[in-house]
What does this fold into?
Amino acid sequence: MIKRIMYIHPVRVTDPLFRDELLSFLRAEMDPDVEVEVTSLSRGPLHLRYRYYEALVLPDVLNRLKAAEDRGFHASIIGCFFDVGLQEARELLHRLAVVGPCQASVQIASTLCRRFSIIVGSGKGIPRIEENLRAYGAHHLLASFRAVDLPVLELHQNRADAVRRLREAGRAAVAQDGAEALILGCTATFGYWRELQAELGVPVIDPIIASFKWAELAAGLSERYQWLPGRIGAYEPPPESEMGAWGLLPADDLEP
It folds into this structure.
């Protein structure tokens, strides 16, 4: 079975690095039976530092996910460490497994260590990530947050400086906070994990790889065992008759 996975940037992407280089990065990690497509929004903000920006992109993200389901994809990744729209997507979709980088990273980290630290670009996002950790039942595993004071859009402008800051934050998390593993708490840090892991001597989890590998697993489980979000309780979907009558059915009418 060929597993088809769509990686969705929940923002408008203007830098080719986050399209072409990211696609090459993902293809280097792919199993032979996986196909991947990278897409982004055609309007809206370039980053999601603010909750207001999250609110703006949510309808378009859900539209893209619904389109991926209709096109026969097996799994999709919402490419932001805040896991924007993850719960809403699982409520809406019937056949598409949806993965969030934060949840995937935390689940993998919990099998590798007893305490991990998350390195973030800035302190602004820490409360948002803390909410997710509590929802995922993983807050007790958190040793610390460490911020490197670099905006998302600058994490690849000067790679040497970004790696230096991440290294210093990681070293402090291990030596001072008792972290046994590190999670890079932004998808824009892709590609930095290997060098950091070699230097720091602890597992360093790249959230894009974590979410991609989790999506591969989820795609296989959904196809072979039909293990998808339940249709009762928390993920009970809104009735299509109601959404249709109210003009609320998702429609991906935006350019990819």
